[in-house]
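Might I ask for a little of your time on a matter of protein folding? Here, with my thanks, is the record as I have it:
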Amino acid sequence: MENKAETQEAIQIQGEVVRKLKSEKASKDQIDKEVAKLLELKAQIGGDNVKHQFVLKTAKGTRDYNPKQMAIRERVFSTIIGCFKRHGAETIDTPVFELKETLTGKYGEDSKLIYDLKDQGGELLSLRYDLTVPFARYLAMNKITNIKRYHIAKVYRRDNPAMTRGRYREFYQCDFDIAGQYDAMIPDAECLKIVHDILSELDLGDFQIKVNDRRILDGMFAVCGVPDDKFRTICSTVDKLDKMPWEDVRKEMVNEKGLSEEAADQIGEYVSLKGGMELAERLLQDHKMCRSTQACAGLSDIKLLFSYLQLFQVTDKVVFDLSLARGLDYYTGIIYEGVLTQAGVAPGSTEAQNGVPAEESVSVGSVAGGGRYDGLVGMFDPKGRKVPCVGVSIGIERIFSILEQKAEASTEKVRTTEVQVMVASAQKNLLEDRLRLLTELWNAGIKAEVMYKKNPKLLSQLQHCEESGIPLVAILGEQELKDGVVKLRVVASREEVDVSRAALIDEIRRRTS
């Protein structure tokens, strides 16, 4: 026992060593060496004939979903998929892990959040970080030049999780993308219409869709005196404006990124601008912006975009916002983000790795984001052939955080099953008759169940229906069997009616349609 106590003490000490090295951001080799020592010590304890004490918890940044939470989630998925299908999308799936080189260099400063897998025999693999890069790889690999697709699947980010704000290490993304060579801004406007429709249908509260263009940002950086090699890193800093005051963003640009104060101040003047088509027209006349061909092209497209958005009847929710940057490297044109604006929800960045102070009961950040990425597919094509793409990602976890909290606050019961009718008996020794009727209902496509007891009490069966929200009870008794009828009870009103066995299925369908 003494040796075991000494080993446990050594494990604690070695654990502190490992934690200290990680906090100091020591080299990977050094950390791996100390982790190996820690595992060796733990193996010594494991070798004893002592029952191992498991820690019953989910891994950091992950969670379980109970039936009530899954019922809410399924309704959200149904709404989103319904919208995607309404706009003519088909669906695909891709592996949960990709070759590491497929993902490397596509996410800018966020690449450090990619989960690398241990080499299992020749291929260096990583868990997918999003669904966009795998989609681009899929298009290039299969030589597809046009497709309208949606993809709903889990992605993984080695992030610092904030569970209360819907930020996880494992989470779903719901993506809609249009790939192909089309006339300017028509597919882009449709993506914004989709964001508008989904956020409206989910009834999350007031929202705003911010739009900008990477070409406008790059042109703005150029005319403000930002060196070419600092465009992406300054863009990542501007991306923090929705959760940091301008003074802090400016300080990061100047002190950490090495930008001149004059250039930072000029950027500050532009990124405070917000508006609509009139702002794009004004900037096209701006004496500095008009010097950038890139910026002018972006501003002309913003004007065209707003003309289509007027036809789609969504301009009341869309704002042209020059502070919107979106940190991912692969965007080449229009970019956008859907943000909830009602009280109780703090605006924040769509990207899961960015956070906001959690002062409100629900503080979730943006709930949709996307943009145009015309060069990504060409990175994978051996001949560099480009397939223009534009898409949107719905932040399902953040939406779910809001709806889950709303459900908790509501008195309305969330049904976790879809059972339409309970087959019950009023007397003993009727199990076989219940099972025969149950089979008839199942075969007719009716969602039905029985209690798994030979002789359940009628009161218990009725109470189960009330607790589970089952709307109807089909009650069998000896008299009903003799008369060839079933007593159909409406649980909510307690109304009962005798229905002939032949008409029962039609009656259940009529009452539950």
Q: What stands out?
A: Residues 278 and 344 are 31 Å apart (CA to CA). Confidence is low (pLDDT under 50) at residues 343-364. The radius of gyration is 29 Å. Residues 2-23 form the longest helix (22 residues).
